[in-house]
């Protein structure tokens, strides 16, 4: 029975990876941060009572900014595999908290690698580092592959650039089995609510149910290669099952604008959106309603919006000081060496996210109608 340690187990990827590894028979240790409110929503379904026999999921308090804590957890859990997923992962927020981001995302990676080395575990513990397509930043060439030069465009990406290279360096200097997965954007119903896809699918559900009037967005021209997180955690695991430690690009190879993602998401609830104007003057207007699709999805309150309403507006607050305009990954190496191919395409991803958010808010409406208080969820 193998043992894995997941940093960032309470995040989107941590939750799907923990589920996958438990299914594969692993003992799974996860590091969670102490918070004033519970932050384990995404893994509560995996929770096992501490008194249960054959328990295989264990949580430890910790933080990537605390070397001693990380060293102790690694020493105690003796993992065969470490998945370093913890990070301050929001690109826009990294402009507000650049030093903390460097500490957690950059030096945090060093802390894990150095702990394994100091403990003399460099020949027994494999390490996965959550690297990112944000490393490519300013477009040099497309599609982006393992050979494409990096040009990071945010404090987040610069911190992750350090994480990438320190992982390569420990592999080369100490013969450690340490690999970078250069993952392109991946989303799911568990995606954090302030990332663009989830922000859109939540708003689509709420607008459709009459709970929200308008969606405020930033740059609609950005293009992203979006996949499903479930597929991407499978790739992480495969990367560590290789005989030789290597870095891999994980992507779908298809790119789409934020604007088209919005169109697709509204289409899921039967709304057609027309975009007019340019730059911060651009708006998305409800152009038509497909009654058949809409009535199938919107079972609670019916429509509160009409054709001609402005449903999408631009707010410059959501623009970044430096933007990554175009990401499109070349997953050929992963296809060939890992035998990895995504099961979800973009339409399936959008459908999964919108239907999940519609259910979420339909449940809220039932609770409100039943006189229960629903916690305010941040936009
Ligand atoms: P999330 O933001 O959903 O999860 C991040 C996790 O890291 C959470 O568990 C969070 O804890 C934890 N965390 C944050 N800061 C610290 C810290 N200082 N110490 C310990 N834990 C911390 O990210 P994702 O699941 O989407 O991404 C996983 C990793 O993959 C991240 O490193 C991200 O940068 C990277 N990545 C993500 C991509 C994507 O498209 N999703 C693409 C490429 C790379 P808490 O729950 O308490 O906030
Ligand atoms: P990204 O994801 O920055 O690619 O990083 P995000 O979903 O935040 O942005 C994608 C693109 O959408 C544009 N955008 C907006 N973004 C947000 N969040 N909110 C808006 O209102 C909005 N309007 C337009 C952005 O400008 C951007 O171009 C994600 C994170 O998961 C990283 O941790 C990971 O490394 C990369 O993906 C790969």
UniProtKB/TrEMBL annotation:
Q: Where is the NAD(P)-binding domain?
A: 5-353
Q: Which Pfam families does this one have? A: GDP_Man_Dehyd
EC number(s) on file: 4.2.1.47
Q: Which gene encodes it?
A: gmd
Provide this UniProt record's keywords sorted from A to Z: Lyase, NADP
Q: Give the domain of life.
A: Bacteria
Q: Does the keyword Membrane apply?
A: no
Q: Which reaction does it catalyse?
A: GDP-alpha-D-mannose = GDP-4-dehydro-alpha-D-rhamnose + H2O
Q: Which GO terms describe its biological process?
A: 'de novo' GDP-L-fucose biosynthetic process
Family membership = Belongs to the NAD(P)-dependent epimerase/dehydratase family. GDP-mannose 4,6-dehydratase subfamily.
Cited function: Catalyzes the conversion of GDP-D-mannose to GDP-4-dehydro-6-deoxy-D-mannose.
Provide the protein name: GDP-mannose 4,6-dehydratase
> What are its cofactors?
NADP(+)
One GO term in the molecular function aspect is: GDP-mannose 4,6-dehydratase activity
Using the UniProt record, name the top-level EC class of this enzyme in a single word: lyase
């Amino acid at each position: 029975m193998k043992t894995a340690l997941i940093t960032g187990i309470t995040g989107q990827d941590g939750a799907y990876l923990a589920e996958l590894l438990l299914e594969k028979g692993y003992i799974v240790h996860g590091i969670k941060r102490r918070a004033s409110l519970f932050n384990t929503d995404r893994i509560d379904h995996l929770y096992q009572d501490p008194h249960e026999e054959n328990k295989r999921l264990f949580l430890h308090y910790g933080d990537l900014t605390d070397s001693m804590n990380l060293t102790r957890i690694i020493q105690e859990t003796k993992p065969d595999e470490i998945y370093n997923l913890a990070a301050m992962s929001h690109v826009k927020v990294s402009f507000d908290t650049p030093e903390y981001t460097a500490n957690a995302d950059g030096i945090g990676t060093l802390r894990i690698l150095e702990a394994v080395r100091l403990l003399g575990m460099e020949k027994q513990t494999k390490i996965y580092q959550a690297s990112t397509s944000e490393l490519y930043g300013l477009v040099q060439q497309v599609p982006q592959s393992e050979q494409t030069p990096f040009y990071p465009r945010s404090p987040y990406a610069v911190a992750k650039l350090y994480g990438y290279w320190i992982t390569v360096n420990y592999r080369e200097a100490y013969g450690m089995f340490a690999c970078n997965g250069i993952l392109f954007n991946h989303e799911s119903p568990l995606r954090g609510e302030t990332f663009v896809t989830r922000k859109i699918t939540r708003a689509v559900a709420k607008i459709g149910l009459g709970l929200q009037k308008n969606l405020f967005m930033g740059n609609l021209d950005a293009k992203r290669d979006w996949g499903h997180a479930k597929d991407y955690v499978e790739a992480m695991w495969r990367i560590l099952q290789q005989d030789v430690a290597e870095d891999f690009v994980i992507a779908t190879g298809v790119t789409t604008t934020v604007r088209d993602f919005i169109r697709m998401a509204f289409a899921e609830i039967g709304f057609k959106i027309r975009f007019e104007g340019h730059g911060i003057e651009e708006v998305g207007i409800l152009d038509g309603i497909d009654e058949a699709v809409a009535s199938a999805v919107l079972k609670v309150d019916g429509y509160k919006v009409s054709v001609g309403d402005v449903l999408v507006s631009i707010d410059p607050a959501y623009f970044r000081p430096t933007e990554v305009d175009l990401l499109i990954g070349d997953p050929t190496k992963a296809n060939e060496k890992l035998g990895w191919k995504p099961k979800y395409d973009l339409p399936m991803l959008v459908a999964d996210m919108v239907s999940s958010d519609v259910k979420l808010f339909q449940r809220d409406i039932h609770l409100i109608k039943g006189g229960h208080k629903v916690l305010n969820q941040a936009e």
